[in-house]
Amino acid sequence: MTKKETSDAKTKKAPNLTLPKEDGLWWLGPWSNLVHCKHCHGLTGPRECSVCGANDPVSSYRTEERNGVVLEISQGAVSHTMHSLLLLMKRECERPTQGEIAQVLPNSASEHAMIVILFWTLFEHIFEQLLRTGAGSLPPRVTKDLFNRHQSIGARMNGLYSILFGATMEADLKESGHNKTYDFLRRVQKKRNDFIHGDAEAIDDALVAETLKRLRDVQAAWLAIYNKRCTGNPNAPPVWQNHHAQATSRTSGK
Ligand SMILES: [Zn+2]
């Protein structure tokens, strides 16, 4: 490393990383208090279904004691994986950096590149949950074949979505008012691939900051296309279930 590179690395300004805060389980953002409506399977708040209008959408409650008070808590819709990834992103936002990577590798990834990696893992997870719910009425062997033929996230966004729903993901997002979200997801997908294939700088501070800025929009966009394409069948598998394990178990005869 030259003297100038060392100096640049030390003076590189750390990005301002924050998640927008709200009350309660704020890291969940628009997914806070979500339930599956027992009538239409839509994803909605617990008081009134925003999809079918029913005023009793919650299908089941569990009892929990907190600080000596017994509470009835509705079965939420968010999976453990969704919870875990959002909490990991939150922790990564709060982790201080001291320019360690930049001192060794001046032209490398953002010190908070992990936020983008976690975000893309989250997107792949929620997109698979959406597709598997959409395929819920198909015979298990047909579903298995379709998912085996479309293993990459690109093939699922481009091909499998259209096969299952008769429309492109791009058109559905744009019709739901999320034009910029589709373009952003495509950009992250490309930069994450560039990163994996050797271009470390593809995940830079600007992409990290934009990912945090657009996180809430992506969550809202996923909700919009889920409620557009995956409602109507109250028996469809809920998002909080481990669809992948269930599909593997069903098709392997376990
Ligand atoms: Zn409903």
How large, in whole angstroms, is the Cα Rg?
A: 21 Å
Largest sheet: spatial strand order = 1-2
User: In DSSP terms, counting alpha (H) and pi (I) runs of 4 or more, how many helices?
Assistant: 10
* Strand and helix order: HEEEEHHHHHHHHH
Q: Which percent range describes the beta-strand content?
A: 5-15%
Poorly predicted ranges: 1-12
Count of discrete structural domains: 2
The kinds of small molecule bound in this structure are: zinc ion
Q: How many strands appear in the DSSP assignment?
A: 4
* Biggest pleated sheet: 2 strands, antiparallel
- Overall spatial form: globular
Main structural class: mainly alpha
First-residue to last-residue Cα separation: 56 Å
Mean pLDDT value: 85
Helix amount, in percent?
Answer: 40-55%
List the defining traits of the structure above.
single chain, 254 residues, mainly alpha, two-stranded antiparallel sheet, two-stranded antiparallel ribbon, 10 helices, 4 strands, 52% helix, globular, disordered N terminus, binds zinc ion
